[in-house]
From TrEMBL:
Belongs to the DinB family. This is DinB family protein. GO terms for molecular function: metal ion binding. Keywords: Metal-binding. SUPFAM superfamilies: DinB/YfiT-like putative metalloenzymes. InterPro entries: DinB, DinB/YfiT-like. Transmembrane segments: none annotated. A divalent metal cation binds at H48, H138, H142. It holds the Pfam family DinB. It comes from Deinococcus marmoris.
Length: 171
C-alpha cells in the first residue's frame, strides 16, 4: 500500500469517527480521562492528532506556514491539555483544513520525492517516505485511543480497521 492509498483510508475512517464524535455529549469529549502531560481528554487527542500532521507537513517537510495559523485560538492554546473547552466543531474544522492541505500536497508527490532526506534536527535526518508513514501511523494509534476511550464511556465507536475500507475483490 502506498502513502496516498493509506491516506485515503484515513480520510474515510475519519469521516466515520467524526460522525460518531458529533453524537457524543460534549461533557464526555471534554472529560479528563488520561493522566498525561499533554493530553487528558478526547478533545486533546483530536487537536494533537491534527496538529502533528500539520506540524510535520508544514514545519518540517514544506518549511512553510502551518494550517494552524488560520486558527489563532487553537494555536494560542499550545500543546498541553487545553482543548476541553473548545467546541468540537472548531477542532474538526481545523482537522478538515489540515486534511485538505495534506491532500493537496500528496497530489503532487512523486516516488522520487519520497526518497528526499528531510532534516528534523541537525542530528536527525529521515527519508520523506518514513516521515509520512510516521504521521499516518501516529493517527492510527491516536484514533484507536479515542475509540477505546469512547468505549470506556459506554459509547460504541465506528469500526475503523483497514479491512473495513479495503475494496472487496470478489467478482
Amino acid at each position: 500500500m502506498k502513502i496516498p492509498e493509506l491516506y485515503d483510508y484515513l480520510v474515510r475512517a475519519r469521516r466515520d469517527l467524526w460522525a460518531t464524535l458529533e453524537t457524543v455529549p460534549d461533557e464526555v469529549l471534554s472529560r479528563p480521562m488520561l493522566d498525561g502531560d499533554r493530553m487528558h481528554s478526547i478533545k486533546d487527542l483530536i487537536a494533537h492528532t491534527a496538529g502533528v500532521e500539520d506540524g510535520w507537513l508544514h514545519y518540517t517537510v514544506l518549511q512553510d506556514t502551518p494550517v494552524e495559523e488560520g486558527f489563532p485560538a487553537l494555536k494560542d492554546a499550545g500543546s498541553g491539555p487545553a482543548f476541553a473547552g473548545f467546541p468540537l466543531a472548531d477542532l474538526l474544522d481545523y482537522w478538515r483544513a489540515v486534511e485538505q492541505s495534506t491532500l493537496a500536497y500528496l497530489s503532487t508527490l512523486t516516488d522520487a520525492d519520497l526518497e528526499r532526506v528531510i532534516e528534523d534536527t541537525p542530528e536527525e535526518h529521515f527519508k520523506l517516505d518514513g516521515l509520512l508513514w510516521h504521521v499516518m501511523l501516529h493517527e492510527v494509534r491516536h484514533t484507536a485511543q479515542i475509540a477505546a476511550l469512547l468505549r470506556t464511556q459506554g459509547i460504541r465507536p465506528p469500526s475503523m480497521d483497514l479491512l473495513f475500507y479495503l475494496p472487496n475483490l470478489k467478482a
